[in-house]
Design brief:
Strands 9-8-7-10-11-15-12 form a 7-stranded mixed beta sheet, with helices on both faces. Strands 2-1-6-5 form a 4-stranded antiparallel beta sheet. It has 9 helices and 16 strands. Among the domains are: 54 residues, Vcp-like ATPase, Chain A, domain 2 (Roll); 189 residues, Vaccinia Virus protein VP39 (Rossmann fold). Helix 2 packs parallel to helix 3, helix 4 packs parallel to helix 9 and helix 5 runs parallel beside helix 6. Helix content is 25%, strand content 23%. The N terminus and C terminus are likely disordered.
Length: 383
């Protein structure tokens, strides 16, 4: 364990200032009303190229096509079209969740929107649900889960590395304008900590995004209520196979269901309608099962002995190195964490919120992030 066993964000944002969007579900104020300083805004030019900027009172957006003062956007309604100093036009919109996830600071690969949407639907994440998540990474999936459970639900996220937790915390607070009342994040191993922090049979759903989810199935089965859902996101066929066999061997789950999702865009212009040449194909597999009542036996088609049988030697051949897993450097994680927490502080100021109390034993407000590397498709921004 690399840090305190539990770091819980419980501080609520301060009341919204006069003229701000009306109070509502967490994050709603940041999605409504005119643009405010501290918000991230997506600028799209006439050729469809997107640039993301964080608005500042004296800021400017610089590109090889001219300069656009941020004052041209602050106070204007969403959907405004503005011109820069050279006459080039941009349409300004708040980034959608899919845009934010793909451009936010990260220390690990994110769960893509197509998979996050499937997880929320296939696992039946409902408002008010008690959900456990393991493998927070950069917080992309956490944002989708928090939106699904709502302010009255409960999401308990477990992360082994505190550096990843800092990045996720900053990204979540940027999206929601401050700490989310339904979110609790703990530093530690799910297999060891879940039984200590959640009562048996008290959890509705469990989402595992980790290298070896089969190691946590005993703890998951104990925490899940009868009928509860466990869903795992894995990257390789080897992981998929081993997770499925571990679910079957455990005996407390229904027959596992596995799938992958591919998204193909289409070009639609007049009568020229055709599929795009590129698509978002394999990113990962989803495998899910439900918790049986204690004493019940799994019903599944009988399988005859075949090449599907495996030995312990087959299992021992699996290693993270064989999968090409690469460790993320501490320097990269710290830089992404500073950037994420800095964006969260700006978002809180824009929405009239506060980041107080979210950094554990550290200062009450997140440190200002230095200018980090631009996201893909993002041009240089000068505050």
């Amino acid at each position: 364990m690399t840090g305190p066993a539990d770091q819980t964000a419980t501080t609520s944002p301060a009341p919204a200032p006069a003229g701000a969007a009306p109070a509502g579900p967490r994050g709603a104020a940041n999605r409504r009303g005119p643009f405010r300083a501290g918000e991230r805004v997506q600028l799209t030019d006439e050729r469809g190229r997107m640039n993301t900027v964080t608005l500042a009172d004296e800021g400017e957006f610089h590109s090889h096509r001219g300069v656009l003062p941020h004052s041209e956007l602050i106070g204007r309604p969403e959907g405004t079209v503005v011109e820069n100093s050279a006459g080039f036009r941009y349409q300004a919109l708040r980034p959608l969740l899919k845009d934010f996830v793909l451009s936010m600071p990260r220390g690990a690969a994110v769960v893509y929107p197509k998979d996050a949407g499937q997880i929320v639907t296939m696992a039946d994440i409902f408002p008010g649900a008690r959900v456990v998540e393991a493998g927070v990474g950069s917080g992309a999936l956490s944002i989708s889960l928090l939106r699904a459970v709502g302010d009255e639900g409960h999401l308990h996220s477990f992360e082994r590395r505190e550096e990843f937790a800092d990045i996720a915390r900053g990204n979540v607070e940027t999206m929601f304008g401050g700490p989310h009342p339904a979110w609790r994040i703990s530093i530690g191993d799910l297999a060891e900590e879940l039984g200590e922090q959640e009562e048996p049979g008290s959890v509705d759903r469990v989402v595992l995004d980790m290298l070896a989810p089969w190691e946590c199935l005993d703890a998951v089965a104990t925490a899940l209520a009868p009928g509860g859902v466990v869903i795992c996101y894995v990257a390789t066929v080897t992981q998929l196979s081993r997770t499925a066999e571990a679910m079957r061997a455990d005996g407390r789950f229904t027959e596992p269901d596995a799938s992958e999702t591919m998204v193909r865009g289409w070009h639609v212009e007049g009568l020229a309608v055709r599929p795009d040449h590129r698509m978002v194909a394999h990113t990962g597999f989803l495998i899910s099962a439900r918790r049986l009542a204690d004493g019940s036996e799994r019903l599944a088609p009988k399988r005859r002995a075949s090449k599907s049988e495996f030995s312990q030697e087959d299992l021992d051949a699996w290693t993270p190195v064989a999968l090409g897993e690469r460790d993320v450097s501490g320097k990269k994680l710290r830089r992404a964490g500073r950037e994420a927490l800095g964006l969260a502080e700006r978002a809180a100021r824009a929405g009239g919120g506060s980041t107080a109390g979210v950094l554990g034993d550290g200062p009450e407000t997140a440190p200002q992030a230095p200018a980090g590397p631009a996201a893909e498709g993002e041009e240089r921004e000068r505050p």
